[in-house]
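so my prof wants the structure for this chain in the C-alpha cells format not the other one, which i didnt know existed until like an hour ago. anyway here's the sequence
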Amino acid sequence: MRTPALLRILETRSDRAHRISMPELILYLEEEGILAERKSVYGSLRALQDAGFDIRFSRSGGKQGYWLEGTYSPAEILVLRNAVYESPSLSASASETLAEKLLGELSCHQAASLPKADLFAGKTDNEEVLSSISVLLEAIRENVSVL
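here's what i got, hopefully its the right format
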C-alpha cells in the first residue's frame, strides 16, 4: 500500500519546481492513513525507481526533495489539450474528458499554471466518435472488416 500511495503523491504533487522533502512525504502518507518511517520510504522510492519510474532528488535553491519527472512537459500537454479542444471530430464532453486525462499527466501545480482554453465552437454532437474509433482499431488489429 505504501509504494502505490507514494507514487500517487509524487505524480500529483511533485515536479521539478515543487520537490517534496522526506518529512513531507511521510506526512502525505500519514494523511492517507499509512504510517511510514524514513527507511521504509527510501525502500519504496528505490522500488519505484527499479520499476522504471523517473524519481529524482535535488538539493538546490534552499530546498531539497524528490519529484517524479513527467512523461510530458507542460508545453506538450498545452498543445495536445488545445488540439483536443479544437478538434471538430470530438464532442464537447469527449473533449473535456480527454483534456482532463491529459492534465492528469502533470502535477497539480503544473496543471493549474496552464492558461484556460475555450472549446471550439464547431464541435460535433456525436458522442460515439471515440467508441467508433475503438471498434475500427480492434478490427484493424484482428484484420477483420467492419460493416
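also thought this was worth mentioning. The mean pLDDT is 92.
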